[in-house]
Amino acid sequence: MINNLQDTITLNNGVKMPWFGLGVFKVAEGPELVNAVKTAIKHGYRSIDTAAVYENEEGVGQAIKEAGIAREDLFVTSKVWNSELGYESTLAAYETSLKKLGLEYLDLFLIHWPVAGKYKEAWRALEKLYRDGRVKAIGVSNFQIHHLEDLIKDAEVKPMVNQVEYHPRLTQKEVQAFCREQGIQLEAWSPLMQGQLLDNEVLVGIAEKYKKSVAQVILRWDLQNGVVTIPKSTKEHRIIENSQVFDFELTADDMDKINEMNQNHRVGPDPDNFDF
């Protein structure tokens, strides 16, 4: 059982990644962002997930600096955006992200979307950064099985992480099974389905049983399914509440009930049909 916020999963290259972190998607630069990241760190979070396209790497970096925690105690993730996918452009994008964050290295760098004809060259750049010791781990985001198969076929280094939309309405069982076979860790973005599940009757019933919030039940379900999770919040009470998922365990029956809620329903773009 995962016992606390600092508990980690060991990736396929031996690097330890926290099971639980803070996402900052759609949090604009400014005091709210800086305070959210500092608050999370203060309350025990050790993983922060951002991306170039979020345009908030500078604020994340400022918060890390002001939090006064040793760099090696944090796990920082960023992602290269679609317009920068390519060998030289991805290498340059990494340097830009580092500069904005004010860091000397990233713990995890991801290809944000599987843009056809572009992600293999970007992956070669990630492999170089990894081999050169510039980044601790590399991975992908929003990759389906066929994207992963295509990438792995020519890759020298296998992705360590695949970050995908994952919540009770989109359980991605086939993707997860494939990742497990390949030793790739699945990570959830939008684990709370942007708040759309918070009044779901099944989840409300389970939450009442454990005297927990629906959000806490969903995040616990992520962890018990072996999925790393990074819920987003800027409010201190919610940041704390989201992380209080280590003092209870869902029964197999409750896990099944939540798993059965799957409808293959996305709130984000379809990785097989996007145009950005």
Indicate the topology.
Blueprint: E1 8-10, E2 16-18, E3 22-23, H1 31-42, E4 47-49, H2 57-67, E5 75-80, H3 87-101, E6 106-111, H4 119-131, E7 135-141, H5 145-154, E8 161-165, H6 173-182, E9 185-189, H7 201-210, H8 214-224, E10 228-229, H9 236-243, H10 252-259
Parallel strand pairs: 3-4, 4-5, 5-6, 6-7, 7-8, 8-9, 9-10
Antiparallel strand pairs: 1-2
Helix pairs in contact: 1-2, 2-3, 3-4, 7-8
Structure description:
This protein has 276 residues and is α/β, with parallel strands linked by helices. It is 39% helix and 15% strand. The protein contains ten helices and ten strands. Strands 3-4-5-6-7-8-9-10 form an eight-stranded parallel sheet. The chain has a two-stranded antiparallel sheet with strand order 1-2. Helix 6 links the parallel strand 8 and strand 9. Helix 1 crosses helix 2, helix 3 (87-101) crosses helix 4 and helix 7 packs across helix 8. The chain is globular and about 55 Å long. The mean pLDDT is 97.
Helix content: 25-40%
Structural class: alpha/beta
Query: How do the strands of the widest beta sheet line up side by side?
Result: 3-4-5-6-7-8-9-10
* Cα-atom radius of gyration: 18 Å
- Terminus-to-terminus distance: 40 Å
H/E element order: EEEHEHEHEHEHEHEHHEHH
* Helical run tally: 10
Biggest beta sheet attributes: 8 strands, parallel
Précis, in short:
This protein has helices spanning 31-42, 57-67, 87-101, 119-131, 145-154, 173-182, 201-210, 214-224, 236-243, 252-259, and strands at residues 8-10, 16-18, 22-23, 47-49, 75-80, 106-111, 135-141, 161-165, 185-189, 228-229. The chain has 276 residues and is of the alpha/beta class.
